[in-house]
Specification:
CATH topology of the largest domain: Methane Monooxygenase Hydroxylase, Chain G, domain 1
Shape: globular
Number of strands: 4
CATH architecture of the largest domain: Up-down Bundle
Oligomer: single chain
Largest sheet: 4 strands, mixed
Radius of gyration: 23 Å
Length: 219
């Protein structure tokens, strides 16, 4: 009887270990697949941004603004793609278990792409008369010191973007992200608190701003 009980315990232990290892392996695979999906989306966006940059350079070199009208539709489409990518990143960050370091690097890469898009649209405003309002939104994420105003500001911006996607381009940036360009923007525009918003690259709105306050900046 004792031998049978011991054998049962050993088998149960082995089965438990196999189930545990299977769960870990499945979790790792799902995290890896999520990161791979996001990176594939970013690769596609990067090609689109590079194409937009070349078109912008082409227009600047020739001084021909005849194709400027094409950019409105392109900008709206690219903005929708970056918004979806940001949403996917947020979702993956909340459920990620095994790819934290990789996901952090993916977030940095996404931020660089997002800022590249912002800079291209800023240039198009000058060279092509692109008339959408650009908002570079700085926020913070800290479980120990939640930024409730950042959450509220994000909801306001999301609502405004849904109402007029062709008139407003929003680029969200984590204030604490360890990237040289983020630090350069913070220093250049004297961003000392969150939420803060750089409007059309030439003025800064500090603190929470409601829809009415931001609406006056729409072109």
């Amino acid at each position: 009887m004792g031998k049978i009980s011991t054998r049962v315990y050993i088998i149960a232990g082995i089965l438990t270990a196999l189930v545990f290892l299977g769960g870990v392996s499945l979790g790792w695979f799902l995290d890896y697949n999520r990161v791979y999906t996001v990176e594939s989306q970013m690769n596609s966006l990067q090609l689109d941004f590079q194409n937009l940059q070349l078109e912008n350079l082409f227009i600047s070199a020739l001084g021909n603004n005849s194709t400027c009208s094409l950019y409105s539709g392109k900008a709206v489409s690219l903005s929708a793609q970056t918004d979806k990518l940001a949403s996917d990143l947020d979702d993956f960050s909340n459920i990620n278990q095994f790819q934290a370091d990789t996901l952090a690097n993916v977030k940095k890469r996404y931020t660089l792409l997002n800022l590249e898009f912002w800079m291209q649209l800023t240039n198009l405003q000058k060279t092509c008369g692109y008339n959408a309002t650009t908002l570079l939104y700085f926020y913070t994420v800290d479980p120990n010191r939640p930024c409730d105003e950042c959450v509220a500001q994000g909801l306001v911006l999301d609502a405004m973007k849904k109402q007029a996607p062709e008139k407003m381009m929003i680029f969200a940036v984590d204030y604490n992200l360890d990237l040289g360009i983020v630090k350069a923007l913070i220093t250049t525009y004297n961003i000392t608190s969150t939420p803060s918003i750089i409007v059309n690259s030439d003025m800064v709105v500090k603190g929470f701003a409601n829809q009415s306050a931001l609406g006056k900046y729409l072109k």
